[in-house]
Specification:
Length: 849
């Protein structure tokens, strides 16, 4: 009996080994059906083995074995498949043994795994194959309940009168043996599952360690002290560039892979470890791989074993330090470069701790500080306030505010300031700094450059530029004055000569010729004045909303008469051109000047191209003269010729008044200066592009106007419509000759005129009789009341009084008061008779309407 029990325990332990193999296998992990099948096979074989070693209970020779544990767990852990396999094996062995009641044995062989299967469904294991403690109670109860069937079946077959009692007593023996088998099998499975879990965890840790070592440049080695070989794992093989599987490597091979300069030191350290002089050690060395690559390594090792203090084995770990060493080398090179730069910079590098802004700490300042402040770095470390004492006192508050703002906004700070060095020298410094946060400290990394020489040079350049500008201005004024004097003297000569001849001439026809010649000369003087004012950007302009394409189409009628047939005119007008607000007469005059210049540049033969375009300009300066132009929408008018171009030496002077490259008598030199003044006064500019021998292009940029493209129309009058009908006109003009002329013109036109020589006198006349229909006044006059002030004072007496202003200077109306209204008309002297009468008729008509 004891032999049977021993054999049964041995079989159960062997089954536990097989179950452990199933639990720990990585190939079976996650494949539950296959695991359950193998569990059924193992428990089925165990049932067969236990059945062969069963103990026969006397007197009926009933076999007693330990099959209950394997059968019930075959159903609980093996599921339907395991229960079927183990139950079939048990039924087969019962039929094979042919006990006294084979049907009962077959029933129990199939029923026990079925109980385990049912309990497995009702109380399944939460962490298979771990069997929870509460499930054992259900399994034992279910197993004991099965024996009611054998008692009922076997009891009547016993010939004695107490058959049921004998059957029950026998059942208790089977229950005790079966329960013991179940509990022993449970413990074996618990340990199998535990060992399998620990083995799986160890395998996973080992796998992770191998991966970590391989990918971190680390490796492990192991050697016996007396052996000539050393074991390298995969990490060590990779570190030394050996294309081998993990295994033994001769020590001589390892020695050939160590840098010759480091090998003696490494061998000496190993010798100390082998003799037990050092139990553990660490050493840095270099590795030379077979391909010649140099790597930096660090090895740690420890010896173990040996009763005499000498180790028998050495275990070690090697790590790759190449990245660290290369980074250190780069950092060292960077530090050296910065040191060289700091030594050669015309300034100083320093670092400050600004965590406490009221008490900043100087952490570093380069030694060149002595060249700027006159203090050594040691003196500044001892007394950092020396820097602030040298700082310009009037700039300290601004400098501190800029630094504080840079720290708060995390933006770089640049500032130029003045210092007084230790020896009293004045120096200019450029400060450039930025703040960073490191280890909860606010640090400012800064560089200060000595720009004293640059500031001195700039000051000298500015001084020389001012001198040059004044000289050029004086030269331009002289040239302008000479040109104006020359042209006006010629005009005055014509006017004076014709008036003198007119005084002695009695022939009406000759008188008319002389009079017309004097008028023509006077008009030429007015044009000259207008051109000068255009150059000065002070001309009187009357802007209209125009479509430049329509203006150019209208201009083609007179272009053909201006240019010879040998010049071809080409136009490229962009459709949907934006409207512009511009003075039409000034525009046509500028266009005529450009066309005549192009004609002269081409010597009467070539191609003239006129084009328009819509442009959006966003740069601050657009033309070669570096004149500001506000960003926005512009309309471009370009006039191009195929002439000789403009020489390089002449390009800077083409817009100066009276400058011309034409022969004497061929041009006044005011055309381009007038165009530039007109364009600037209109809010635009002029660009010129030229190439000698190829031609020239002038581009006029007009600001695009808002609103419609409809052109404004000024009232026009026929000769008979400008005559007066007895309206009363009050004239204020301080020049006697001009006043007499105005009175004569107005009276001959049918107006009743009262003339005064100042604004004060005109106010007195009007105050006494405020029934005048119109005020015609000069703007600048002697006395307290200028023209605009006079108009404002009279309109306080009568608000609907029409006013016509006259002036010899374009901006007088803007400079001397605010008495102007939109409906008022302003005339530029000299004014022709028809213009005066038309202006008077216009304002009177507006009042009547």
């Amino acid at each position: 009996m004891f032999i049977s029990i021993f054999q049964s325990l041995t079989a159960l332990l062997l089954a536990g080994v097989f179950c452990y193999a199933i639990f720990v296998s990585g190939h079976l992990r996650g494949r539950k059906r296959l695991q359950q099948t193998l569990m059924g096979v193992v428990f089925g074989i165990l049932v067969i083995a236990l059945s062969l070693d069963s103990y026969l209970l006397e007197p009926r020779k009933v076999p007693i074995d330990a099959n209950a544990g394997p059968l019930i767990f075959a159903g609980y852990l093996g599921g339907p498949i395991g229960a079927l396999i183990a139950g079939a094996c048990a039924a087969f062995m019962v039929s094979f043994n042919s006990g006294p009641v084979p049907i009962v044995g077959v029933f129990m062989g199939l029923a026990i795994p079925t109980v385990g299967l049912i309990i497995g469904y009702l109380r399944p294991p939460t962490d298979w194959p771990v069997i929870p403690r509460f499930a054992i109670g259900y399994l034992l109860c279910g197993f004991a309940a099965l024996f009611l069937v054998p008692i009922v079946i076997v009891g009547p077959t016993i010939p004695t009168g107490n058959g049921y009692r004998i059957a029950a007593m026998s059942a208790l023996v089977f229950i005790a043996v079966g329960a013991t088998s179940i509990l022993i099998t449970w413990q074996i499975l618990i340990y199998a599952a535990k060992f399998a879990s620990e083995a799986a965890r160890s395998a996973e840790l080992s796998r992770r360690l191998d991966l970590s070592l391989q990918h971190s440049g680390m490796g492990m080695f192991e050697r016996n002290v007396d052996d000539t070989d050393v074991y390298f794992d995969a990490g060590m093989m990779a570190a030394y560039g050996l294309d081998r599987e993990p295994g033994l490597v001769p020590m001589s091979t390892w020695a050939t892979l160590i840098h010759p300069d480091d090998l003696p030191r490494l061998q000496a350290e190993f010798q100390k470890s082998d003799t037990g002089e050092r139990e553990r050690d660490r050493v840095d060395f270099r590795v030379v791989r077979p391909d010649g690559t140099l790597r930096y390594a660090r090895a740690y090792w420890v010896g173990e074993g040996g009763t005499d203090g000498k180790p028998t084995r050495v275990f070690g770990v090697q790590s790759d330090l190449t990245d660290i060493r290369e980074a250190e080398q780069r950092q060292l090179e960077t530090i050296n470069r910065l040191a060289v730069i700091a030594e050669n910079l015309p300034g100083v590098m320093f670092q400050s701790d600004m965590t406490d802004r009221k008490n900043p700490k100087l952490l570093y300042i380069s030694p060149k500080c002595q060249d700027i402040w006159g203090y050594t770095d040691a003196e500044i470390y001892a007394d950092s306030d020396a820097l602030m004492r040298a700082h310009d006192p009037s700039d300290i508050d601004l400098f501190n505010a800029l630094v504080a703002n840079g720290i708060d906004s995390r933006t770089p700070v640049s500032h130029r300031y003045r210092i007084t060095a230790r020896d009293g020298t004045i120096r200019w410094l450029d400060y450039h700094g930025a703040s960073t946060i490191k280890d909860c400290c606010v640090l400012i990394e800064s560089i200060v450059l000595d720009v004293t020489h640059e500031v001195d040079v700039m000051a000298q350049v500015e001084k020389e530029r001012e001198i040059s500008y004044r000289a050029q201005k004086s030269e331009s004024i002289g040239l302008l004055t000479g040109g104006v004097a020359h042209d006006f003297n010629n005009l005055l000569a014509v006017i004076l000569g014709n008036l003198e001849l007119l005084a002695d001439e009695n022939d009406p026809a000759t008188q008319n010729v002389l009079r017309n010649a004097a008028i023509t000369a006077a008009l030429r003087g007015a044009d000259l004045t207008k051109n000068l004012l255009s150059f000065a950007r002070k001309a009187r302009l009357t802007p209209e909303v125009l479509d430049l394409n329509n203006v150019l189409r209208d201009a083609k009628t007179w272009m053909g008469r201006t240019l010879p047939e040998s010049i071809s005119i080409r136009t490229s007008l962009v459709p949907e051109l934006w409207p512009v607000a511009v003075d039409r007469s000034s525009l046509e005059s500028a266009l005529l000047n450009l066309i005549l210049n192009a004609r002269d540049a081409m010597a009467g033969q070539g191609n003239l191209t006129i084009e328009t375009a819509n442009l959006r300009i966003d740069q601050g300066y657009v033309d070669s003269r570096q004149e500001a132009l506000a960003p926005g929408r512009y309309v471009m008018l370009a006039v191009s010729d195929t002439g000789e171009g403009i020489a390089q030496d002449d390009r800077a002077s083409i817009f100066e008044p009276f400058f011309t490259t034409k022969p004497p008598g061929s041009g006044s030199g005011l055309g381009l200066s007038m165009i530039l003044g007109f364009m600037k006064q209109s809010g635009g500019t002029v660009q010129v592009y030229t190439e000698v021998g190829e031609g020239t292009t002038f581009k006029l940029f007009f600001p695009a106007a808002e609103g419609s493209k409809e052109e404004s129309v000024s009232p026009t009058f026929a000769e008979g419509e400008i005559a007066g009908r007895g309206q009363r006109v009050l004239v204020a003009e301080d020049e006697d000759a001009v006043r007499k002329t105005l009175v004569t013109i107005l009276e001959r036109a049918g107006y009743v005129v009262t003339a005064t020589s100042s604004g004060d006198k005109a106010f007195a006349v009007f105050n006494a009789d405020p029934t005048f229909d119109l005020l015609l006044t000069d703007i600048v006059m002697p006395g307290k009341l200028q023209g605009t002030h006079l108009a404002k004072a009279l309109r306080q007496i009568r608000s609907d009084l029409p006013v016509v202003f006259m002036s010899g200077y374009a901006t007088e109306a803007m400079v001397h008061g605010n008495g102007l209204r939109p409906e008022d008309i302003r005339l530029m002297k000299p004014v022709q008779r028809l213009d005066i009468l038309a202006a008077v008729a216009t304002v009177l008509q507006l009042r009547a309407n």
